[in-house]
Amino acid sequence: MYGMASHSTTAQTAQGKHFSCTLSAVLLARVAAFGGQAAVDEVVRRSGSTRSVEYLVDITNWIAYDEAVALWRAGGEVTHHPEFARAVGVDSAERLGSSQVAAMLRSLGAPGKVYSAIAAGAAQFSTVTRLEVVDAGPGRARGQGHPLPARGPGQAERGASHPPQGIRGRGHRRLPG
């Protein structure tokens, strides 16, 4: 499924709304700049996605974790870019840098404060990863993401007596740890 035959795919990561199609839209734009529509079609084919390109570039849509990873892998293969995922991240920052969210994050000032705010905000929405700032200083910050353990039915959040309400409380599951 999603071109990940060498990895065990779980229902927890193969289905769901883990990533906004903002990611796939920027990813496919990078691929299109490299090789046009034929390259875009090849990335979608290799990834195993059953979605249309139109769906994947509509930023109001969502895709599962496994589908996002498969698109990253296929994009790297098709473009032959050794750091394809990083390049997509740079593209995202450049394309989305003028958004209201970006303006709010810039208002925080130092990169360490920005990344701490991103990590704290991501914790409210991500059901598959935990972000943390591992090193920050003047003009620089380094973050790291960690997969979260799977949540079974009736199992409370880590250390909490009751699971939180809202997005994370709607039956989404985390990655196996």
- Measured between the Cα atoms of the first and last residue, the distance is 21 Å
Strand content: 5-15%
Low-confidence stretches: 1-10, 154-177
**Secondary structure: number of strands:** 4
Structural class: mainly alpha
Radius of gyration: 17 Å
Shape call:
globular
Count, helices: 7
Task: Kindly give the count of domains.
Answer: 2
Q: What does the largest sheet look like?
A: 2 strands, antiparallel
**Helix content range of the residues, please?**
40-55%
Could you walk me through the main structural features you see in this protein, from its secondary elements to its overall organization?
- This protein is mostly helical and 177 residues long.
- It has 2 domains: 1-96, no CATH class; 98-177, no CATH class.
- 49% of the residues lie in helices and 12% in strands.
- It has 7 helices and 4 strands.
- A two-stranded antiparallel ribbon has the order 1-2. A two-stranded antiparallel sheet has the order 3-4.
- A hairpin with a 2-residue loop joins strand 3 (129-137) and strand 4 (140-147).
- The chain is globular.
- Residues 1-10 and 154-177 have low confidence and may be disordered.
What descriptors fit this protein?
177 residues; mainly alpha; 2 domains; two-stranded antiparallel ribbon; two-stranded antiparallel sheet; 7 helices; 49% helix; globular; disordered N terminus; disordered C terminus
SSE order and pairing:
Layout: H1 11-14, E1 19-20, H2 21-47, H3 53-57, E2 62-63, H4 65-79, H5 84-96, H6 100-106, H7 111-125, E3 129-137, E4 140-147
Antiparallel strand pairs: 1-2, 3-4
